[in-house]
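Reopening: C-alpha cells for the flavin mononucleotide complex, inputs below.
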Amino acid sequence: MDISAGVDDAVVDPAALRRAFAAFATGVTVVTVGGRTPHGMTANAFTSVSLDPPLLLVCVDREAVMHRHLVAAGSFAVSVLAADQEHVARHFADRRRPLGAAQFDVVDWRPGRLTGAPLITGALASFECALWRDYEGGDHTIFVGRLLSAEKLHEEDAVLFLHGRFRQITPMPSGVVR
Ligand SMILES: Cc1cc2nc3c(=O)[nH]c(=O)nc-3n(C[C@H](O)[C@H](O)[C@H](O)COP(=O)(O)O)c2cc1C
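Re-run output (same inputs, fresh job):
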C-alpha cells in the first residue's frame, strides 16, 4: 500500500475530523493544578496508561491556560465526573470563568493531600500525579502523570461525552461483563 498517495479529505478538514473523533464515547474529567494560582480544565482526553509503574495521561491544548500551569506546577490531579456533574464540566470548559482560586467558588472541593491540587467533591474517582513525561502531540501536549494517589469514591454513573453532547448511561439489558 502506497501511503504517500495522500490523505482523505476528512483528515484535513478540522470540523470533519472533530466529528469523527467525537464518535468515541468518553467519560469527562476535570484536570486541576494547585499552588498560588490554582486552575481547572475540563478534559475527556484522559486515559489510564500503566499499572507498573502507575501512569495515566491527559492531552492538553498548547493554547489552554492549563498548559502553562501544568508545566509550572509539575504535578496535577484528575477528578472523574459523576452523572449529576455536567454543570461542573461546562463550568471548567467555559473560557469566561474567572481565573485563579475564584473559578472554584462554584464547586465543592478539597485540596489533594500530596499535590494541593483541587479534588472535586462528588467525583467518582480522583487521582493525584507527579508529571512524569510530556510528549509533543501536534497542537496538544500529552502529559503522562505518575500516580501519587488514586481513590475510587462513588459507585454512581459517570457523565459521558459523545458526538459533542453530554449523555447519561443507559444500561444494556444484557447486564454485567466479568
Ligand atoms: C467535554 C469536554 C472535553 C474537553 N476535553 C479537553 C481535553 O481533553 N483537552 C483540552 O485541552 N481541552 C479540552 N476541552 C476544552 C477545554 O475544557 C476548554 O477549552 C477550556 O476552556 C480550557 O481552559 P483553560 O484555557 O482556561 O485552561 C474539553 C471541553 C469539553 C466540553
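The chain has a mean pLDDT of 95. Residues 26-157 form a domain with the Pnp Oxidase; Chain A fold (CATH 2.30.110.10). Marking as resolved unless the reporter disagrees.
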